[in-house]
Amino acid sequence: MVKFIPPYIGEEVKSNAEKQMYEILQELNLEDAYVLHSLGLPRHEDKKYGEVDFVIVCKRGIACLEIKGGRVECHEGKWLFTDRYGIQRKKTEGPFAQVTGNMYSLMQALRERFKNDYHFTYFNMACGVCFPDIYFNSYSEEMIPEIIFDNSTEDITCYINEIFDYWESRHPRENTKFSKEDIEEIVDYLRGDFCFIPTLRDEINSLEKRMIRLTREQYKVIDALRTQPRILIQGGAGTGKTVLAMHYATEQATQGKKVLYLAYNKNLINSIKKQFEEYINIDVINIHALFGEYIKIDDTKVKENPNKYFGEQMPEEFLNWVSELSETKLNELKYDVIVIDEGQDIIKPVFLFALDSLLKDGFENGEWAIFYDEHQNIYNSEYNDGMEIIKSYNHVFTYLFVNCRNTVQIAKYTSKTSGIEINNYMSENGEEVQTLVFSENKEFKEKIKTLIRHLREEQIELSDVLFLSPKKYENSLLSQINFKVNELGQNFDEKSSLPRYATIQGIKGLDAKIIILVDVEKILDKNFSKYMYIAGTRARTMLYVIVEQSYCLDHSV
């Protein structure tokens, strides 16, 4: 995997061409490679200050890239650059001379720095000029066609290898191939010369902007939803199930249909309700509240065995109530379309029988869409029986593979710790997952204080931070150290500037910019895999794990 330094492109970068090239370089496939953006060269040979837009350090050597955007022309040795606003700039030095000069200056700086290391005597240097906005078809004596990247270049990895091939042919000798350790040593030396260091807030906001886009497979699912009356959609965490479920519900509602949007999780439902306020024909409700709309909740049975009551007795009482309705009354209750989000918690026989009575033409001939992830099933012991029923109806099945929520680092960490494979994700690089270890409550308190202070210094809004735990706040370590939070639930305050707090069980279907996972050592071994999968995949851009030392060693957190 290629690592980027810095891991995000900062707000300070105004060049659209550089931003575009940063995106293109995300597709680079070179083992153990680094891409450094906007590297200053204070030791430039001909100027007091030079700058390389991108430096790539890999096993083959070091490559410098000069990026030029807009329209580019060269007349009688004079270069004319026109930006997207029509503003023109003239230069006597062209991009080819510029990048070549930067390449040789960087080579000299590295040879000086590593002069006592014999295998840095000869190493490969390469450079290229990139015009991501245009097809570049002008040629002059100064230009080098072999090192040009333009909007007709299809593969960035091939291009980088080709510029190495070109410069190696110009200097035919046996050059050093860098090891992983060599690469890291060079990068450590170079990283101090950056022109900007964006705050963590800038980095997170930049990353979020890049990740909010639909994938090709999501567009295919949208097409399927428009043409198929009954569809079953399986997808891992972060693949866009809720986004697509909401999109489908709104499309159906705008056609005048009466839509029921269901989920198991109250917190998810409360979040979605706010976004559907303008739609009077979409009912957004969790499964138990739906039954409670029609039958009186038996408080005695709830106290005796809440799981049995809400999972078995309540839906059975609802079915008995429905069976006594007249056909006219029943038809008034029915929905044209049912959308089930986080379906793994709802796909059980007794729930399906109850919902079947509320859907026009039932599950067999009616219109429905069910979105689910079997890896997040932590409530439903009858999932397989329910799935057998659903699959018996004539329907279309489709799968969402690409995780669009998590960075590469978060996805890989979550996959490793949970043992649940996340093989497909958008190649957006972010910060490494940070594990903070403590041995006693006093040390835990200090870790929390230090982390919150760091986030504040990095201009992070604490309301963008979500603490996750397997326990309710009153039973958490945060409560023991009197750390104040804004807990999701009945007393949640949307306007509060405090960090938010939720249980892992209660956060399914939701996410946050920054997740801080606590009380990890309180996760039961039987739940460890699913809880770590759910918790890790809630983090969009940053994940911190605070864990007791002995537990960390035993569980490889």
Describe this entry's structure for a reader.
Helix content is 38%, strand content 20%. It is α/β, with parallel strands linked by helices. The chain folds into three domains: 3-197, no CATH class; 216-400, P-loop containing nucleotide triphosphate hydrolases (Rossmann fold); 408-555, P-loop containing nucleotide triphosphate hydrolases (Rossmann fold), CATH 3.40.50.300. Strands 1-2-3-4-8-9 form a six-stranded mixed sheet, sandwiched between helices. Strands 12-11-13-14-10-15 form a six-stranded parallel sheet. Strands 16-21-20-17-19-18 form a six-stranded parallel sheet. Helix 11 (306-323) runs parallel beside helix 13 and helix 16 (408-418) runs antiparallel to helix 19. The longest helix is centred in the N-terminal third of the chain and has 19 residues, at 95-113. The radius of gyration is 29 Å and the shape is elongated. Residues 41-49 and 193-197 have low confidence and may be disordered.
Distance from first to last alpha carbon? 21 Å
Strand composition percent: 15-25%
Which range best describes the helical content: under 10%, 10-25%, 25-40%, 40-55%, 55-70% or over 70%?
25-40%
Mean pLDDT: 86
Q: Structural class of the secondary structure composition?
A: alpha/beta
Radius of gyration: 29 Å
Main beta-sheet strand count, sense and barrel state: 6 strands, mixed
Strand order of the largest sheet: 1-2-3-4-8-9
Q: Tell me the domain tally.
A: 3
Which ranges are low-confidence, i.e. pLDDT below 50, for 5 or more consecutive residues?
41-49, 193-197
* Shape field: elongated
The quaternary state of the protein chains shown equals: single chain
DSSP helical segment count: 20
Kindly state the number of beta strands: 21
Pfam family, one: NERD
GO molecular function: 3'-5' DNA helicase activity; ATP binding; DNA binding
